[in-house]
Amino acid sequence: MKGLYFQKSSTDEEITFIFQERENLPVIEDNYVKVQVKACALSQINTKLLAEMKMEKDFFPVGREIAGIVLDVGSKVSFFQPDDEVVGILPLDSEDPGLCEVVRVHEHYLVHKPEKVTWTEAAGTIRDGVRAYTALHYLSHLSPGKSVLIMDGASALGMIAIQLAHHRGAKVISTAGSLEDKQCLERLRPSIARVIDVSNGKAHVAESCLEETGGLGVDIVLDAGVRLYSKDDEPAVKLQLLPHKHDIITLLGVGGHWVTTEENLQLDPPDSHCLFLKGATVAFLNDEVWNLSNVQQGKYLSTYLKRCDGEVIKWSL
Protein backbone atom coordinates (compact mmCIF):
# COMPACT_ATOMS: atom_id res chain seq x y z
CA MET A 1 0.00 0.00 0.00
CA LYS A 2 1.51 3.32 -1.11
CA GLY A 3 1.21 6.81 0.39
CA LEU A 4 2.29 10.23 -0.87
CA TYR A 5 4.99 12.14 1.01
CA PHE A 6 7.08 15.24 0.37
CA GLN A 7 10.72 15.89 1.08
CA LYS A 8 12.40 19.27 1.44
CA SER A 9 15.81 19.92 -0.07
CA SER A 10 18.68 21.01 2.14
CA THR A 11 18.27 24.58 0.89
CA ASP A 12 14.49 24.58 1.56
CA GLU A 13 13.98 25.89 -1.97
CA GLU A 14 12.63 22.72 -3.56
CA ILE A 15 10.04 20.19 -2.46
CA THR A 16 9.97 16.71 -3.95
CA PHE A 17 6.87 14.53 -3.84
CA ILE A 18 7.36 10.77 -3.71
CA PHE A 19 5.24 7.66 -3.24
CA GLN A 20 6.45 5.39 -0.47
CA GLU A 21 5.42 1.83 0.11
CA ARG A 22 3.81 1.47 3.52
CA GLU A 23 3.60 -1.65 5.62
CA ASN A 24 0.23 -2.90 6.80
CA LEU A 25 -1.16 -0.72 9.58
CA PRO A 26 -0.43 -2.02 13.09
CA VAL A 27 -3.12 -3.38 15.36
CA ILE A 28 -5.57 -0.61 16.22
CA GLU A 29 -4.80 1.03 19.58
CA ASP A 30 -7.43 1.79 22.22
CA ASN A 31 -8.74 5.15 20.94
CA TYR A 32 -7.77 4.83 17.28
CA VAL A 33 -9.89 4.24 14.21
CA LYS A 34 -8.89 2.62 10.92
CA VAL A 35 -10.46 4.48 7.99
CA GLN A 36 -10.70 3.56 4.31
CA VAL A 37 -10.11 6.87 2.52
CA LYS A 38 -12.72 7.78 -0.11
CA ALA A 39 -11.60 11.38 -0.72
CA CYS A 40 -8.68 13.56 0.38
CA ALA A 41 -8.17 17.31 -0.09
CA LEU A 42 -4.82 18.85 -0.98
CA SER A 43 -4.18 21.85 1.24
CA GLN A 44 -1.06 23.97 1.49
CA ILE A 45 1.79 22.42 3.48
CA ASN A 46 2.93 24.91 6.11
CA THR A 47 6.63 24.08 6.36
CA LYS A 48 7.29 27.18 8.45
CA LEU A 49 4.84 26.06 11.13
CA LEU A 50 6.28 22.55 11.11
CA ALA A 51 9.74 24.01 11.74
CA GLU A 52 8.46 26.28 14.54
CA MET A 53 6.81 23.32 16.27
CA LYS A 54 9.99 21.21 15.98
CA MET A 55 8.21 18.65 13.81
CA GLU A 56 10.72 18.49 10.98
CA LYS A 57 11.57 15.07 9.60
CA ASP A 58 12.86 13.50 6.40
CA PHE A 59 9.46 12.77 4.87
CA PHE A 60 6.18 14.56 5.57
CA PRO A 61 2.81 12.94 4.79
CA VAL A 62 0.66 14.74 2.19
CA GLY A 63 -3.08 15.32 2.51
CA ARG A 64 -4.82 15.83 5.85
CA GLU A 65 -8.51 16.50 5.16
CA ILE A 66 -10.08 13.10 4.59
CA ALA A 67 -13.48 11.45 4.24
CA GLY A 68 -14.04 7.73 4.33
CA ILE A 69 -15.54 4.61 5.88
CA VAL A 70 -14.57 3.16 9.28
CA LEU A 71 -13.03 -0.31 8.89
CA ASP A 72 -12.08 -1.07 12.48
CA VAL A 73 -12.07 0.63 15.90
CA GLY A 74 -10.03 0.31 19.08
CA SER A 75 -11.41 -1.11 22.29
CA LYS A 76 -11.99 2.31 23.89
CA VAL A 77 -13.51 4.07 20.87
CA SER A 78 -16.96 5.36 21.87
CA PHE A 79 -18.09 7.53 18.94
CA PHE A 80 -17.71 5.23 15.94
CA GLN A 81 -18.23 1.68 14.76
CA PRO A 82 -17.35 -0.17 11.55
CA ASP A 83 -19.10 1.04 8.37
CA ASP A 84 -19.68 4.56 9.74
CA GLU A 85 -19.06 7.35 7.22
CA VAL A 86 -16.67 9.92 8.69
CA VAL A 87 -14.77 13.09 7.83
CA GLY A 88 -11.92 14.80 9.64
CA ILE A 89 -8.55 16.49 9.64
CA LEU A 90 -5.40 14.51 10.38
CA PRO A 91 -3.14 16.12 13.03
CA LEU A 92 0.14 17.79 12.15
CA ASP A 93 2.12 14.94 13.68
CA SER A 94 0.25 12.22 11.81
CA GLU A 95 2.54 9.62 10.27
CA ASP A 96 -0.13 8.53 7.79
CA PRO A 97 -0.76 10.59 4.65
CA GLY A 98 -4.37 11.25 3.69
CA LEU A 99 -3.43 10.31 0.13
CA CYS A 100 -3.43 6.61 0.93
CA GLU A 101 -5.94 3.78 0.84
CA VAL A 102 -6.20 3.33 4.62
CA VAL A 103 -5.21 5.59 7.54
CA ARG A 104 -5.12 5.20 11.30
CA VAL A 105 -6.34 8.20 13.30
CA HIS A 106 -7.44 9.07 16.84
CA GLU A 107 -11.24 9.21 17.14
CA HIS A 108 -11.17 12.84 18.34
CA TYR A 109 -10.02 13.97 14.89
CA LEU A 110 -13.12 12.56 13.20
CA VAL A 111 -16.86 13.23 13.09
CA HIS A 112 -19.76 11.56 11.32
CA LYS A 113 -20.25 12.71 7.74
CA PRO A 114 -23.75 14.07 7.00
CA GLU A 115 -25.66 11.75 4.70
CA LYS A 116 -26.43 14.43 2.10
CA VAL A 117 -22.80 15.49 1.70
CA THR A 118 -20.61 13.66 -0.85
CA TRP A 119 -17.13 12.36 -0.12
CA THR A 120 -15.37 15.03 -2.19
CA GLU A 121 -17.50 17.83 -0.78
CA ALA A 122 -16.81 16.73 2.79
CA ALA A 123 -13.04 16.45 2.36
CA GLY A 124 -12.80 19.56 0.18
CA THR A 125 -14.59 21.97 2.50
CA ILE A 126 -14.01 20.72 6.05
CA ARG A 127 -10.90 22.86 6.70
CA ASP A 128 -12.39 26.17 5.53
CA GLY A 129 -15.71 25.26 7.13
CA VAL A 130 -14.08 24.84 10.53
CA ARG A 131 -12.11 28.07 10.02
CA ALA A 132 -15.24 30.04 9.13
CA TYR A 133 -17.26 28.60 12.00
CA THR A 134 -14.43 29.25 14.46
CA ALA A 135 -14.12 32.87 13.29
CA LEU A 136 -17.82 33.72 13.41
CA HIS A 137 -19.05 31.64 16.33
CA TYR A 138 -16.17 31.29 18.79
CA LEU A 139 -14.06 34.39 18.06
CA SER A 140 -16.68 37.03 17.23
CA HIS A 141 -19.94 35.64 18.72
CA LEU A 142 -22.07 36.30 15.64
CA SER A 143 -25.77 36.89 16.35
CA PRO A 144 -28.83 37.98 14.33
CA GLY A 145 -28.85 41.59 13.17
CA LYS A 146 -25.06 42.03 13.27
CA SER A 147 -23.18 43.50 10.31
CA VAL A 148 -20.23 41.50 9.00
CA LEU A 149 -17.47 42.44 6.56
CA ILE A 150 -15.99 39.34 4.92
CA MET A 151 -12.90 40.10 2.87
CA ASP A 152 -12.35 38.15 -0.37
CA GLY A 153 -15.84 36.68 -0.25
CA ALA A 154 -15.38 34.54 -3.38
CA SER A 155 -12.62 32.47 -1.76
CA ALA A 156 -13.40 29.10 -0.19
CA LEU A 157 -13.25 30.55 3.33
CA GLY A 158 -15.20 33.65 2.32
CA MET A 159 -17.97 31.75 0.56
CA ILE A 160 -18.64 29.49 3.54
CA ALA A 161 -18.40 32.42 5.98
CA ILE A 162 -20.98 34.37 3.96
CA GLN A 163 -23.44 31.47 4.07
CA LEU A 164 -22.92 30.93 7.80
CA ALA A 165 -23.42 34.64 8.47
CA HIS A 166 -26.63 34.71 6.42
CA HIS A 167 -27.85 31.61 8.24
CA ARG A 168 -27.43 33.44 11.56
CA GLY A 169 -29.38 36.45 10.26
CA ALA A 170 -26.46 38.84 9.81
CA LYS A 171 -26.06 41.64 7.29
CA VAL A 172 -23.10 40.78 5.04
CA ILE A 173 -20.71 43.09 3.21
CA SER A 174 -17.91 41.59 1.13
CA THR A 175 -15.00 42.51 -1.13
CA ALA A 176 -14.19 41.10 -4.56
CA GLY A 177 -10.73 40.95 -6.12
CA SER A 178 -11.89 40.63 -9.73
CA LEU A 179 -14.91 41.19 -11.95
CA GLU A 180 -15.57 37.44 -11.97
CA ASP A 181 -15.55 37.34 -8.16
CA LYS A 182 -17.88 40.33 -8.02
CA GLN A 183 -20.39 38.70 -10.36
CA CYS A 184 -20.21 35.46 -8.37
CA LEU A 185 -20.97 37.26 -5.10
CA GLU A 186 -23.80 39.28 -6.62
CA ARG A 187 -25.51 36.06 -7.71
CA LEU A 188 -25.67 34.66 -4.17
CA ARG A 189 -29.05 34.28 -2.49
CA PRO A 190 -29.78 35.62 0.06
CA SER A 191 -28.10 38.61 -1.52
CA ILE A 192 -25.13 40.43 -0.02
CA ALA A 193 -25.86 43.97 1.20
CA ARG A 194 -22.88 45.40 -0.70
CA VAL A 195 -20.05 43.95 -2.80
CA ILE A 196 -16.98 46.21 -2.84
CA ASP A 197 -14.85 45.78 -5.97
CA VAL A 198 -11.20 46.28 -4.94
CA SER A 199 -9.70 44.93 -8.18
CA ASN A 200 -8.77 48.35 -9.56
CA GLY A 201 -7.36 49.63 -6.28
CA LYS A 202 -9.69 52.64 -6.27
CA ALA A 203 -12.42 51.45 -3.92
CA HIS A 204 -12.30 52.73 -0.33
CA VAL A 205 -13.37 49.84 1.87
CA ALA A 206 -13.70 51.91 5.04
CA GLU A 207 -15.84 54.58 3.37
CA SER A 208 -18.08 51.98 1.73
CA CYS A 209 -18.67 50.13 5.02
CA LEU A 210 -19.39 53.33 6.95
CA GLU A 211 -21.81 54.42 4.24
CA GLU A 212 -23.59 51.03 4.30
CA THR A 213 -23.94 51.10 8.10
CA GLY A 214 -25.00 54.73 8.41
CA GLY A 215 -21.67 55.74 9.90
CA LEU A 216 -21.86 53.22 12.77
CA GLY A 217 -19.26 50.80 11.41
CA VAL A 218 -19.47 47.03 11.12
CA ASP A 219 -19.75 44.69 14.08
CA ILE A 220 -17.45 41.96 12.76
CA VAL A 221 -14.55 41.92 10.29
CA LEU A 222 -13.06 38.70 8.92
CA ASP A 223 -10.03 39.70 6.89
CA ALA A 224 -7.96 37.84 4.32
CA GLY A 225 -4.76 39.61 5.30
CA VAL A 226 -4.00 43.31 5.74
CA ARG A 227 -1.33 45.82 4.74
CA LEU A 228 0.89 46.78 7.65
CA TYR A 229 3.16 49.40 6.13
CA SER A 230 3.16 52.39 3.82
CA LYS A 231 2.67 52.08 0.07
CA ASP A 232 6.40 52.29 -0.59
CA ASP A 233 7.10 49.20 1.52
CA GLU A 234 4.37 46.87 0.24
CA PRO A 235 4.28 44.66 -2.92
CA ALA A 236 2.07 46.00 -5.72
CA VAL A 237 -0.36 43.05 -5.59
CA LYS A 238 -0.87 43.40 -1.85
CA LEU A 239 -1.43 47.15 -2.24
CA GLN A 240 -4.19 46.54 -4.74
CA LEU A 241 -6.25 43.87 -2.99
CA LEU A 242 -5.75 44.27 0.76
CA PRO A 243 -6.92 47.10 3.03
CA HIS A 244 -4.53 48.84 5.38
CA LYS A 245 -4.84 47.97 9.06
CA HIS A 246 -5.92 51.57 9.73
CA ASP A 247 -8.88 51.08 7.37
CA ILE A 248 -10.02 48.04 9.35
CA ILE A 249 -9.80 49.95 12.63
CA THR A 250 -11.68 52.88 11.10
CA LEU A 251 -14.60 50.81 9.82
CA LEU A 252 -15.03 48.81 13.05
CA GLY A 253 -18.05 49.82 15.11
CA VAL A 254 -18.22 50.23 18.89
CA GLY A 255 -17.71 46.84 20.55
CA GLY A 256 -16.67 45.36 17.21
CA HIS A 257 -14.65 42.20 16.64
CA TRP A 258 -11.74 42.03 14.19
CA VAL A 259 -10.80 38.45 13.29
CA THR A 260 -7.51 38.49 11.40
CA THR A 261 -5.53 35.90 9.47
CA GLU A 262 -2.44 38.13 9.55
CA GLU A 263 -0.06 36.26 11.86
CA ASN A 264 2.45 39.14 11.98
CA LEU A 265 -0.07 41.89 12.75
CA GLN A 266 1.61 44.91 14.33
CA LEU A 267 -0.47 47.49 16.18
CA ASP A 268 1.14 50.80 17.15
CA PRO A 269 0.07 52.61 20.36
CA PRO A 270 -2.32 54.93 18.45
CA ASP A 271 -3.96 51.86 16.87
CA SER A 272 -4.40 50.21 20.25
CA HIS A 273 -5.77 53.42 21.73
CA CYS A 274 -8.37 53.69 18.96
CA LEU A 275 -9.44 50.08 19.54
CA PHE A 276 -9.60 50.80 23.28
CA LEU A 277 -11.89 53.80 22.73
CA LYS A 278 -14.21 51.63 20.62
CA GLY A 279 -14.11 48.75 23.09
CA ALA A 280 -13.17 46.56 20.12
CA THR A 281 -11.32 43.24 20.16
CA VAL A 282 -8.76 41.59 17.89
CA ALA A 283 -8.68 37.81 17.51
CA PHE A 284 -6.28 35.68 15.47
CA LEU A 285 -7.62 32.93 13.26
CA ASN A 286 -4.97 30.22 13.42
CA ASP A 287 -5.41 27.62 10.67
CA GLU A 288 -4.07 24.90 12.94
CA VAL A 289 -5.94 25.84 16.12
CA TRP A 290 -7.73 22.48 16.14
CA ASN A 291 -4.37 20.72 16.55
CA LEU A 292 -3.84 22.31 19.95
CA SER A 293 -6.54 20.14 21.51
CA ASN A 294 -7.91 17.06 19.79
CA VAL A 295 -10.92 17.04 22.12
CA GLN A 296 -11.74 20.62 21.15
CA GLN A 297 -11.29 19.75 17.45
CA GLY A 298 -13.95 17.07 17.67
CA LYS A 299 -16.28 19.65 19.24
CA TYR A 300 -15.63 22.14 16.41
CA LEU A 301 -16.06 19.59 13.62
CA SER A 302 -19.22 18.09 15.07
CA THR A 303 -20.92 21.46 15.66
CA TYR A 304 -20.04 22.73 12.18
CA LEU A 305 -21.24 19.61 10.36
CA LYS A 306 -24.54 19.51 12.26
CA ARG A 307 -25.32 22.88 10.71
CA CYS A 308 -24.33 21.61 7.29
CA ASP A 309 -26.56 18.55 7.43
CA GLY A 310 -29.64 20.69 6.80
CA GLU A 311 -28.05 22.07 3.62
CA VAL A 312 -27.11 25.32 5.32
CA ILE A 313 -23.81 25.22 3.45
CA LYS A 314 -23.75 24.76 -0.31
CA TRP A 315 -20.30 23.15 -0.10
CA SER A 316 -18.75 25.32 -2.81
CA LEU A 317 -15.47 23.81 -3.96
TrEMBL record:
Entries under Gene3D superfamilies matching the protein: Medium-chain alcohol dehydrogenases, catalytic domain
Pfam families the UniProt entry points to: ADH_N
GO molecular function: oxidoreductase activity
Domain Enoyl reductase (ER) stretches: 10-301
InterPro entries reported for this sequence: ADH-like_N (IPR013154), CRYZL1 (IPR042633), ER (IPR020843), GroES-like_sf (IPR011032), NAD(P)-bd_dom_sf (IPR036291)
PANTHER family cross-referenced by the UniProt entry: QUINONE OXIDOREDUCTASE-LIKE PROTEIN 1
Protein name: Quinone oxidoreductase-like protein 1 isoform X3
Organism: Callorhinus ursinus (Northern fur seal)
Lineage: Eukaryota, Metazoa, Chordata, Craniata, Vertebrata
Primary gene name: CRYZL1
